[in-house]
Amino acid sequence: MFNKKISKFIFSSAAVLALAACGNGASTESGEDSVASDAASSAEGNNQDQIVLRMAWWGSQARHDATVEVIEMYEEENPNIDIQYEFFDMDGYITKLNTLVASDSIWDIFQLGGNYPAYIDNIQPLDSFIEDGTIDTSNTTEMFLDTTRDQNGNMVGLSLGVNSYGIAYDPAMFEQAGVEEPAENWTWAEYKDAALKVSEEFGVFGSSIMDDFLAGGTIGVGPDYNFFDKDDQTKLGFDDPGRLVDYIAMRKELVDKGAYPDPGAAAEVTDIEGDFVVTGEAAMTWVATNQFPTLASAAGKELKLTTLPRKDKDDPYGLTLNSSQMLSIPTSSEHQEEAAKFINFFVNDEEANQILNGERGVPIMSNIREMLEENASPELLEVFSYVDYVGEQHNEELNNIENPHTAEIRDQYELLLDQVIYDEITPEEAAQQIYDFAVETIK
């Protein structure tokens, strides 16, 4: 990025000198000097007006390509703005973000998700930019705006789309294996049976990788409990570690029987385009709804989207809608207003959103949703339909996963799950250790 900018400057400087050298032969020396002087003054003025914004995000290659195209569109419409961008996979992004937090030099525009509480002290609320009209929210609702408000009601970012989570599956593989397609109220027992049957029939994984902490932790504690207490971030929402055992034991059984990737194989999947469903080595996978179209496109075959399993068929659905990602501004930015203007463009401009195409989630602006629906792919329409379904199941008392210590507890959960898979500890021991670690970490 830096080298590209330098090249542009060298080319512009050379062009100015060439124009001066190629002046009309009748021109006087003082006239040539005047032309060169005017050009130099103009270039100097442009340089003085130039504002550099730094931006970063994580995601798939499709997201990178679309985001860069929108950035270039904005720069073309706003020639005084130079957006220098970086993009990463999720792990690389968090590593770099934590480094920048330590040096108080976070990008001017940065992407966050449910991990935002860990960075709350570094986030500049957007309320003032909404109040003065820099960010236009006239085409959305308070319900959508609430998805990026903290517990004190501050707008810590602007949502790039709402989403939920689900299971993407290959209906052809299900049919060939003699497995019924999942119903909306299917259970974890049915998920396990489907994975085992597909694996036995085809000699592949029945299931690709899941988000184990969300599946086994937040949903795993059951329909009447939260992992984290909704009203007190220093407490858990359940008091029986045994509620974590069933999912951990199921995961070990699936790995042992070759129906689920072991930790080494799972580590090979670094982005959605490389998922085992895409390569034909699995029949289903966990997916954020906003990534379903990318997954289906990469697979090059029909995939369907269904709900996450429940413990029992009559249980209420275990997840709600949330903001997939948001764009935020750090307190350290020297160009907060210009950053806010770009965020406004990113979420409100129709041409930009034709390029972005709802890849980060169902857009919160009604005019953008309506525009996308007109020419939406079958996969995107399926996402819209699924999000509508999850929204209808909305239960504000379920599955609070936003806690400043979520990342630490998630890491510990995954570490202990691996130890179970390698027969180092039992599911019961892992459940107790996860519970104890969480209690000590958040108190």
What does this structure look like?
This protein has helices spanning 2-21, 29-49, 61-77, 90-102, 127-131, 142-145, 171-176, 188-202, 212-218, 245-256, 263-266, 292-299, 336-348, 350-356, 366-374, 378-392, 406-421, 427-442, and strands at 51-58, 81-88, 109-112, 123-124, 158-159, 162-163, 165-169, 284-288, 304-306, 322-323, 326-330. The strands form 3 sheets. Strands 1, 2, 3, 4, 5 and 11 form a 6-stranded mixed β-sheet that branches. It has a 3-stranded antiparallel β-sheet with strand order 8-7-9. It has a two-stranded antiparallel sheet with strand order 6-10. The model is unreliable at 1-46 (pLDDT under 50). It folds into 3 domains: 49-161 and 323-383, D-Maltodextrin-Binding Protein, domain 2 (3-Layer(aba) Sandwich), CATH 3.40.190; 165-209 and 261-319, 3-Layer(aba) Sandwich (D-Maltodextrin-Binding Protein, domain 2), CATH 3.40.190.10; 210-243 and 405-443, no CATH class. The longest helix has 21 residues, at 29-49. Strand 1, helix 3 (61-77) and strand 2 (81-88) form a beta-alpha-beta unit. The radius of gyration is 25 Å and the shape is globular. The protein is α+β, with helices and mostly antiparallel strands and 443 residues long. Helix 1 packs antiparallel against helix 2 and helix 3 packs antiparallel against helix 14.
